UniProtKB/TrEMBL annotation, chains A, B:
Gene: hisS
Main location: cytoplasm
EC numbers: 6.1.1.21
Keywords, ordered alphabetically: Aminoacyl-tRNA synthetase, ATP-binding, Cytoplasm, Ligase, Nucleotide-binding, Protein biosynthesis
This protein's record includes keyword ATP-binding: yes
Designated name of the protein: Histidine--tRNA ligase
Keyword Protein biosynthesis attributed: yes
Molecular function in Gene Ontology: histidine-tRNA ligase activity
Source species: Winogradskyella bathintestinalis
Length: 456, 456
């Protein structure tokens, strides 16, 4: 192969610094997941196709990566089926497994499969890659990690409260201050649709409403009209477009709009409970904000809907989201299991921390000291010392070859190794080491104890 | 879907305890990789098929999981090709990507692709899953993690020395004492083949020799004969079958056998250097042992060959292996890059630690304290305290529902939560907490400061 190798589009290699930064985010999230009482699970990268297919809509089905059956995969296909030369017919015959598309469906499958081993309510977290055959674009990849925490088996609104606290705790721990945790409730959207006589147009209605920030009030109304929502209905929405003030004031306006809708009032009650609790508990650095236009994954959520936006001065879509779904495991035959969960957008959080310079300086610190190799005898003596340092947990290296001094120093420089030890014949006899600080250029002679102290 | 869902054969779900134990092993390995100056990289789960195909032999090609192209994957196939109904013809047309089969080929691809950003010698580690369409059996899975460390760009034997130290450091850190690090050298095998006039039968010869432990001297000789190795040649091997004593003695015997083989003597010289260095440096808990029958992946290695066996009282295949390959990146067009590396067998190490009871007791410790939920007001007050504890890094939970006391206590019991806090109306007023030790059954009243102290 003469041509330089490459990787599939939408995938990425990560170098040491990137791995370190990504794992800093993941470890921070993981630590808070654990503090909040969530337990880790891991599921296989591929599932049986029938576990995944049909769970994400037609578009989802298309975006699921299918794995070709091994061996004689054409053998079991009838001539009729084969001669149809149809992807639809063939796919299910030649592929029985598919790569995980998200962590929620595998989680639901896990809960049903292991229901007898699980203590409910079951608080689980899962940090694993997922794959989607999406068209790759800036910030959208075909392989990416999801970081999810969910509780299944309790309808208590304290869960929603704790998830808001968890978002706040994670972003505070990442020093990412000023994120906005937006909250809405599917029941409020249903209530509004009811009030304006558009129960059957809930999706059209929320899709239009969702654009309020982008296209403005007039265009939103036009779109609603074009979807067949009556002018009378739209006029009842007027207070919605001018919902102002803090959480409490907005709730009062919503109460006025939704006074005739039972489900709408239920949604308001839930939001009030959550808001009161959060006001009592106080968030460290995040702000909780009611956003009636928030609709994400509407067909999915049945109660609370969450979305987190980066601080205002950063241009970036949502960096987290989630919500409650009343029948998480029903798709696998286990009824009445309410679930609520949130997800962290690793790649976007990465970009935000990068843009704001919030990664700790020491994050990618690797080797602390390089021992220069002056030849076999010296190197052997060095390795004795390197071994001792390593046994005490210090990251130390011996340059493997007796290469030119300049080459070895360059290696230390380019690797950002802050200290270099030079042990020549003279030092070998006297058992002192010449320690060079690569930043200041200073060098002085030290004994082992001192060397160890300085490196720590 | 009425039927209980399942996962593909050869794959596994991991529960909280298993995740914790696996990550204990991986974190221990990772910490030593870093102390030894290795840097992490990560590569995509799937590669372009031409990156992987043809790199692992015919058997390997068959065991690689191929990913079906998305969309209209039949469109580009000619009628001729289609009508052949041949898996061989179709596979490359309908699949352009394949799941990673090991970490070495992707590493070689990475090095070539990023050669201008890399400082050589490049010491990288990589801990990621790989996939093989092998027939699943006890201890063999279709998805499993590999933990690899390799150096590329130096022929220095100090690398081999350090890898032996690294094995010793990792297994010592895991408290797995008494592992045997077996070493051989491809050059010695080549030398022996040369001496007995069977250069062209090196593979047959080593395959037979490799069975010495299992089938004994006579059967090995029979097998060699059946493969066409002359009786005269086999008789020259006699000293090989009675190689006894320590490393030094075995080396002396080998010198006698290989005195006429240049390459054989080179192999001996390398082994001697490594053995002398390790004798000087001393291993903590492992033993280095020369094993002339060790051949693993013969077509691959060109110098040192390593394999690690579990302590003698544990029945288990190798728990690690590796070696030197002189032309690691040649397959991708970058010549003269010698590589040497080792791998840790996560699944087998797991089984060994489990069998010997070596996992630390505290490894799967999750939630430390559960606050019993007596109703909305009490729960709200509890959540204040839970929040404070969490902010101080303590793993705490509030039971989300005001369920029956027995149910909540059962939850704590089954989750192995060691402490439970009961805050009823009375406690709410006096701001003291009743803390119950779930092991002893004792309970007493404490203030917050005391609560925090006891839980830490």
């Amino acid at each position: 192969m003469a041509q330089k190798p490459s990787i599939p589009k939408g995938t990425r290699d990560f170098n040491a610094e990137e791995v370190a930064k990504r794992s800093y985010i993941m470890e921070t999230i993981k630590a808070q997941f654990q503090v909040y009482g969530f337990q880790p699970i891991e599921t296989p990268s591929f599932e049986n196709s029938d576990t995944l297919m049909g769970k994400y809509g037609d578009e989802g089905d298309r975006l699921i990566f299918k794995i070709l059956n091994s061996g004689e995969f054409l053998k079991k296909i009838s001539d009729n089926d084969y001669n149809s030369k149809s992807e639809g017919v063939l796919t299910s015959k030649i592929s029985e497994k598919a790569l995980r598309y998200d962590l929620t469906v595998p989680f639901a499958r896990y809960v049903v499969q292991h229901q007898n081993e699980i203590e409910f309510p079951f608080k689980r977290y899962q940090i694993q890659p997922v794959w989607r055959a999406d068209r790759p674009q800036k910030g959208r990849f075909r392989e990416f990690f999801q970081c999810d925490a969910d509780v299944v088996g309790s309808t208590s609104l304290f869960q929603e409260v704790e998830f808001i606290q968890l978002y706040d705790a994670v972003f505070s721990a990442l020093n990412l201050e000023g994120v906005t945790i937006k909250i809405n409730n599917r029941k409020i959207l249903s209530g509004i649709a009811e009030v304006i006589g558009a129960q059957d147009k809930l999706i059209d209605f929320t899709v239009a409403l969702d654009k309020l920030d982008k296209i403005g009030e007039e265009k939103v109304k036009e779109e609603m009209q074009s979807k067949g929502i009556s002018e009378d209905g739209i006029s009842k929405l007027q207070p919605l477009f001018i919902l102002k003030g803090d959480f409490g004031n907005q709730i009062e306006s919503l109460k006025a709009i939704l006074s005739s809708s039972e489900i709408g009032l239920k949604g308001i009650e839930e939001l009030e409970f959550i808001n009161t609790a959060i006001s009592n508990l106080k968030l460290k650095t995040a702000t909780l904000q009611l956003d009636v236009t928030l609709a994400r994954g509407l067909n999915y959520y049945t109660g609370a809907i969450f979305e987190v936006s980066a601080p205002k001065d950063v241009k970036m879509g949502s960096i987290g989201g989630g919500g409650r779904y009343d029948d998480l495991t029903g798709i696998f035959g286990l009824k009445d299991m309410s679930g609520v969960g949130i997800s962290f957008g690793l790649d976007r959080i990465y970009l935000v921390l990068e843009e704001l310079g919030l990664f700790p300086d020491t994050i990618a610190d690797s080797t602390k000291v390089l021992f220069i190799n002056f030849g076999e005898n010296e190197a052997m003596a060095c390795l004795q010392t390197v071994t001792k340092l390593r046994q005490n947990g210090l990251k130390a290296e011996l340059y493997p070859d007796a290469a030119k001094m300049k080459k070895q120093m360059n290696y230390a420089n380019r690797r950002n190794i802050p200290f270099v030890v030079l042990v020549g014949e003279e030092e070998l006899k006297s058992e002192v080491f010449t320690l060079k600080n690569m930043n200041s250029g200073e060098q002085h002679k030290v004994e082992f104890k001192e060397l160890e102290r300085l490196l720590k």
